[in-house]
Design brief:
By secondary structure, the protein is of the alpha/beta class. About 45% of the residues lie in helices and about 15% in strands.
């Protein structure tokens, strides 16, 4: 995203802030409405062109969004209005029209259902409309359009109230790589928030189906460009986005080599981006994306996030995933997914009578209910990565133990990743972990003895690439020299290559030699977890380092101890005589 586009977006957010729209969720939602209307106008122009060129052969792609009298609701027809006329027309006519397209364009209608224009100052609205009108989205690549929304979402991080909606990129990237979604997989997040996991899953697929995927640090292209200039790899006027792919790879590799890591794996965490030009069926990709959120604002933001990343027809809806009366259809309840990725809300408690009856837990706690939802929704052979509070891993209530028992005995629990306490700072200091598991194929018969010998891998992430203690500018400062996640992913690749039979690291209960490096990963057999009351806390099974025996002669230590004891006894006897006298 170039600097001019970045400045334009900053002007838009500044205009809204000065105009009284100060809640980040609200002004991102309001910007989303207007961007969507501009995108639909551009799409309408494309449809008109197809009709002119192809006539009757245009088929369904030639159906207009704004036929005949409805053309007045197009962005290009009302953008010149100003004052109260502009505000009233958008609020009272454009929004209701878009919400009325239930049969023609159900996703658009759902997006605008109950939509409210909260930019009440006509002058502010006019300024924002003019700024957005200056962006030709049709000429922007999907990457750039996606970057627009990623930039807007950074504003959510400035409000502690809204921090719950964002999962840090380094954690999302890690989880997506571990479950490795592919084209044809149905992908689901039952608490999708802004759609971050869905976007990253799509990005993973696009990179797979790209001729020349681009490697990007988790800190972004601009960070890489600045780092490359500091190292003398780029001239001051050079733009890294315009460098040839091979040159960009060389720069990334050179930066990685400055951050070697203790295990020989660079601590610079990266992910891959690509255009996905080799995807044979784009509609198949769009139809495979599913997300649900209880907040209509979040649902809209997630939808716009996906639209700007090229996914126009994702199945994102507003509903309460946990509730019997939450708005889920029979199809929603019966659908099974190949990939589930989520960071659901913790610490909520639902009324017993409103909780879905089909979940594998009787608990009222939201973290157990969400895990139950994902276990139930996973298709045979499907895989799931979910963030959970650490208390879920060792909680002693009957509901905690029973859900863990079902997870361990009826599913393939592949990994438990312990995350640092500071991952979600400054919004929450709760200690969390990530569970990665699969649902066995329906055709496989469970053998109790074989199941007992299966292994679970534990990895303790001590650092995630950001300072765990400092907060600057609403977030944690970057520490690229301290990040265990690249090492975790390298070891995960080994584990996966073995068919999840040979987890890296040492076995639980192993006593390591004095002076050994503290282990990051270890494993244990299922039977050991069963014996420990299904406790999944990583520390429970961590191998111990034997303390080095003292160099001193033990007989000499005993003599010194006896001498000290005699001095104490003599002192006490002397004190006793003085008291008696």
């Amino acid at each position: 995203m170039n600097q001019e586009l970045r400045r334009k977006l900053k002007r838009i957010t500044d205009i809204l802030w000065a105009g009284g729209v100060t809640n980040p969720v609200t002004y991102i939602e309001q910007i989303s409405y207007l961007i969507y209307l501009k995108l639909l106008d551009e799409e309408e122009s494309n449809r008109e062109l197809r009709v002119r060129l192809l006539g009757d052969k245009a088929g369904g792609n030639g159906e207009l969004l704004f036929p005949k009298e409805a053309e007045r609701y197009r962005w290009s027809k009302w953008r010149f209005k100003s004052g109260p006329e502009l505000r009233d027309f958008v609020r009272d006519h454009v929004f209701p029209y878009m919400a009325s397209l239930v049969k023609e364009e159900p996703q658009i209608a759902e997006y605008f259902r109950d939509a409210v224009l909260e930019i009440t100052d006509p002058n502010v609205l006019k300024q924002v409309v003019d700024e957005i009108d200056g962006i030709d989205f049709g000429k922007l690549g999907t990457d750039v359009k996606g970057d627009i929304f990623e930039y807007l979402l950074t504003h959510l991080g400035q409000s502690a109230l809204n921090g719950q909606f964002l999962t840090p990129r380094q954690i999302r990237t890690m989880m997506v790589e571990m479950v490795d979604p592919d084209l044809g997989d149905t992908i689901y997040d039952p608490a999708c928030g802004t759609g971050g996991f869905l976007i990253d899953a799509v990005g993973n697929i696009l990179a797979k189906y790209s001729t020349e995927p681009q490697e990007v640090p988790i800190y972004g292209i601009e960070w890489l460009e600045q780092k490359a200039r500091q190292m003398g790899l780029l001239e001051k006027e050079e733009d890294i986005d315009k460098t040839p792919p091979q040159r960009r790879r060389e720069i990334i590799q050179a930066v990685k080599e400055t951050l070697p890591g203790q295990t020989g794996v660079s601590t610079l965490q990266t992910y891959r981006k690509g255009a996905g030009e080799k995807i044979p069926d784009w509609e198949l990709l769009e139809r495979s994306i599913y997300g649900i959120d209880v907040s209509r604002q979040m649902m809209r933001i997630a939808m716009m996030n996906l639209v700007l990343h090229g996914i126009r027809k994702a199945n994102v809806k507003r509903a309460n995933t946990l509730s019997e009366m939450g708005g889920l259809t029979e199809d929603d309840l019966n659908r099974r997914y190949k990939v589930i990725l989520s960071n659901p809300p913790f610490a909520g408690v639902l009324p017993k009578e409103s909780i879905r009856k089909d979940l594998p837990t009787n608990s009222k706690k939201s973290e157990l209910l969400f895990l139950g939802v994902m276990m139930e929704a996973l298709a045979p052979g499907g895989r799931c990565a979910v963030v959970v509070p650490e208390g879920l891993l060792f909680g002693s209530t009957k509901a905690h133990r029973e859900l863990r028992r079902k997870l361990v005995e009826d599913y393939d629990l592949l990994a438990v990743v312990s995350l640092p306490a500071g991952v979600f700072k400054p919004y929450a200091g709760v200690k969390t972990g990530v569970l990665v598991f699969r649902r066995p194929s329906a055709t496989i018969e469970m053998d109790k003895r074989a199941k007992d010998e299966e292994k679970v891998w534990f990895y303790k992430v001590r650092a995630d690439g950001f300072d765990p203690d400092k907060i600057q500018g609403g977030g944690r400062p970057e520490t690229p020299e301290r990040n265990d996640i690249p090492d975790l992913l390298a070891k995960w690749s080994e584990y996966k290559a073995s068919g999840y039979k040979n987890p890296p690291g040492v076995e639980a209960g192993t006593m390591l030699e004095p002076g050994s490096e503290e282990p990051r990963s270890w494993w244990t057999a299922i039977k050991n977890i069963v014996e420990n009351n299904y406790n999944l806390a990583a520390g429970r099974y961590k191998p111990q380092i034997v303390e080095k025996a003292p160099d001193e002669d033990p007989t000499e230590l005993i003599r010194e101890t006896l001498a000290i004891e005699r001095e104490i006894a003599e002192g006490l006897e002397k004190l006793l005589k003085e008291i008696e006298a």
